[in-house]
């Protein structure tokens, strides 16, 4: 099916909303995307017809719920082309997935004096957990710097890689600038140095290539709610060899094999990393979101989003005194900017009053803001259902805001 | 000097003449632009009230049981909000500032700025003013 935004927009009931009497122009998709009716229906249908606890129930509803939950795991496995479904761990989001690896990989493989590398381009959720782990394990925390275009400096990365580097963590797409990192190259360089790699795919899995085997990622983390699925569900993919060797993250029900007063043995993958009753409906909603995406050719999604992005860049650059942040070699879905003499909070507030939803501030990426010498940006971020018309509405609203601000 | 409630009533009345959102914001922005710049000597680290997105500098003085306030922000809208807050709470008896119920926010529709995820530091500014007024009323703030 080709991309026809008119019919796509009809699939997302919230896009009909009016804000302050104006049609909603939703450009905050990097924070969270809206949900198609099919996802809302899948969640509603679960609670209406087969809500039940899973995995150990003997009754009919429990079997239905277990089957739906586990078939969602297979759907995720297929979507990211993971070799095995037991390599798919459900978490509550990207943040928890990264914290899981930072903890369990840290406990298993990081020793005093070892090194961990992240980049300056990271969201705090792919930065702070590693800092915490390094403190706990007495390891060294290394940060690859950005260049002025918003690309990470591969030369510097190469210099930071040593025989003590145990793990490298980076995002495939930056939530602040939209930089597409050369993931394949980074992973290959890290592997050559003997380090494992975690890819934060929160901003990439819905926009660009997402094949974990092609990338050869050791760990790959993303969130359901940024890919048209529900909040509170995320995914950690990990290679079996690592997940098997890592100690559990949390203890409790589900993750055990045998428990006695003297010793506990753990369940097999993926359940070893899924303590307690999980978010049962989350994966069911996520599977519906994947079904929704799968009706399109992914190349068509990328092409459509790239067209709107390029149009957005051109239109924004027509505005006097506007600085667009990030001019990376490869760019996805994010338009980050400031206008000279205008505070981002003022612009964001005045856009909101006109029904245009953007995000302002540091976007949980203070190291990037420091590197760029600013304290925040206005960020418009795109999804499948955005159109050039949305960009036109944004531009018109910016002009009105500037007039009000006396610019 | 009119009381805190009298000033609040005037502000609510002023805003009632501005039914459209853009008029209200234009007025706020104008207030922000008109507010005298804070003396750079008062733009100290101690006076910073940090919001998630905008920064406010708040200078406090306590003289003869009264609270005197001056503020500035890097955001014009927040500066306008601060200007209104100064109108209401500055040059008032500390006791009154401490007990003030800031009803004008709700009545003018400006309350959305109080709830907006603490982004602008306005809520923190009110908390700090109240804390300062408590000290001033007890006679231990200068």
Task: List the topology elements.
The complex is a heterodimer of chains A (about 400) and B (about 140).
Chain A (H helix, E strand, L loop, with lengths): L4 H6 L7 E2 L2 E2 L1 E2 L10 H14 L9 H20 L8 E4 L2 H16 L5 E5 L8 H10 L2 E5 L9 H7 L4 E7 L11 H10 L3 E5 L11 H4 L3 E5 L10 E5 L1 H6 L10 E4 L4 E3 L14 H14 L3 H20 L4 E4 L8 E6 L4 H9 L3 E2 L1 E3 L4 H7 L4 E5 L6 H17 L3
Parallel strand pairs in A: 3-15, 5-6, 5-7, 7-8, 8-9
Antiparallel strand pairs in A: 1-2, 4-10, 9-10, 11-12, 13-14, 14-17, 16-17
Helix pairs in contact in A: 2-10, 3-10, 4-5, 11-14, 12-14
Chain B lengths: L3 H13 L4 H14 L13 E3 L4 E9 L2 E8 L2 H14 L2 E2 H6 L4 H5 L3 H4 L6 H16 L5
Antiparallel strand pairs in B: 1-2, 2-3, 3-4
Structural description of this entry:
The complex is a heterodimer of chains A (407) and B (142). By secondary structure, chain A is of the alpha/beta class. Chain A has two domains: 135 residues, Aspartate Aminotransferase, domain 1 (Alpha-Beta Complex), CATH 3.90.1150; 255 residues, Type I PLP-dependent aspartate aminotransferase-like (Major domain) (Aspartate Aminotransferase, domain 2), CATH 3.40.640. Helix content of chain A is 39%, strand content 17%. The longest helix of chain A is centred in the N-terminal third of the chain and has 20 residues. Chain A is globular. By secondary structure, chain B is an alpha+beta fold. Chain B has one domain: Alpha-Beta Complex (Sufe protein. Chain: A). Helix content of chain B is 51%, strand content 15%. Chain B has seven helices and four strands; from the N terminus they run ααβββαβαααα. In chain B, helix 1 crosses helix 3 and helix 2 crosses helix 3. Chain B is globular. Chain B starts with a helix and ends in a 5-residue tail after the last helix. The model of chain B has no long low-confidence stretch (mean pLDDT 89). The chains are: A alpha/beta (407), B alpha+beta (142). Chains A and B meet through helix 12 of A and helix 2 and helix 3 of B.
């Amino acid at each position: 099916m080709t991309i026809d935004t008119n019919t796509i927009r009809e699939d997302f009931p919230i896009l009909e909303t009016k804000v302050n009497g104006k049609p909603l122009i939703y450009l905050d998709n990097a924070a969270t995307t809206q949900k198609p009716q099919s996802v809302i229906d899948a969640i509603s249908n679960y609670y209406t017809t087969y809500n039940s606890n899973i995995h150990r129930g003997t009754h009919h509803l429990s079997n239905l719920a277990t089957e739906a939950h586990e078939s969602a795991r297979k759907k995720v496995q297929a979507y990211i082309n993971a070799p095995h479904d037991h390599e798919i761990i459900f978490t509550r989001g990207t943040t928890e997935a990264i914290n899981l690896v930072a903890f369990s990989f840290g406990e298993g493989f990081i020793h005093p004096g070892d090194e961990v590398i992240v980049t300056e381009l990271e969201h705090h959720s792919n930065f702070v957990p590693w800092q915490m782990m390094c403190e706990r394990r007495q390891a060294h925390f290394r940060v690859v710097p950005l260049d002025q275009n918003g690309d990470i400096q591969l030369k510097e990365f190469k210099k930071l890689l040593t025989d003590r580097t145990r793990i490298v963590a980076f995002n495939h797409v930056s939530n602040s600038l939209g930089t597409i990192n050369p993931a394949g190259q980074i992973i290959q360089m890290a592997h050559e140095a003997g380090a494992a790699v975690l890819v934060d795919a929160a901003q990439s899995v819905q926009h660009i290539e997402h094949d974990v085997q092609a990338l050869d990622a050791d760990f790959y983390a993303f969130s359901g709610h940024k890919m048209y699925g529900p909040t509170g569900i995320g995914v950690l993919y990990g290679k079996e060899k690592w997940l098997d060797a890592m100690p559990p993250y949390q203890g409790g029900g589900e993750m055990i094999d045998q428990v006695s007063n003297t010793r506990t043995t753990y369940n097999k993958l993926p359940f070893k990393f899924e303590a307690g009753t999980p978010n049962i409906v989350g994966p069911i909603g996520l599977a519906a979101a994947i079904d929704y995406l799968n009706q399109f050719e992914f190349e068509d999604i990328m092409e459509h989003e790239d067209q709107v992005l390029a149009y957005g860049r051109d239109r924004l650059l027509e505005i006097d005194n506007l600085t667009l942040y990030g001019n990376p070699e490869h760019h996805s879905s994010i338009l980050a900017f400031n206008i000279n003499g205008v505070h981002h909070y003022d612009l964001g507030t005045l856009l909101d009053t006109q029904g245009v939803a953007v995000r302002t501030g540091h976007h949980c990426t203070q190291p990037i803001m420091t590197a760029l010498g600013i304290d925040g940006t206005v960020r418009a971020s795109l999804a499948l259902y955005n159109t050039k018309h949305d960009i036109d509405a944004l531009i018109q609203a910016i002009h009105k805001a500037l007039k009000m601000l006396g610019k | 000097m009119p009381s805190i409630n009298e000033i609040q009533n005037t502000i609510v009345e002023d805003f009632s003449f501005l039914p459209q959102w853009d008029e209200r914001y234009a007025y706020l922005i104008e207030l922000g632009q008109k507010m005298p710049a804070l003396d750079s000597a008062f733009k100290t680290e101690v006076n910073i009230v940090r919001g998630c997105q905008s920064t406010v500098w708040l200078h406090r003085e306590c003289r003869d049981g009264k609270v005197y306030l001056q503020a500035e922000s890097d955001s014009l809208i927040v500066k306008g909000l601060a200007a209104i807050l100064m109108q209401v709470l500055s040059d008032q008896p500390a006791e009154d500032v401490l007990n003030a119920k800031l009803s004008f926010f709700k009545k003018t529709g400006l309350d959305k700025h109080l709830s907006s995820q603490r982004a602008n530091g306005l809520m923190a500014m009110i908390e700090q003013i109240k804390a300062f007024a408590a000290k001033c009323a007890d006679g231990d703030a200068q």
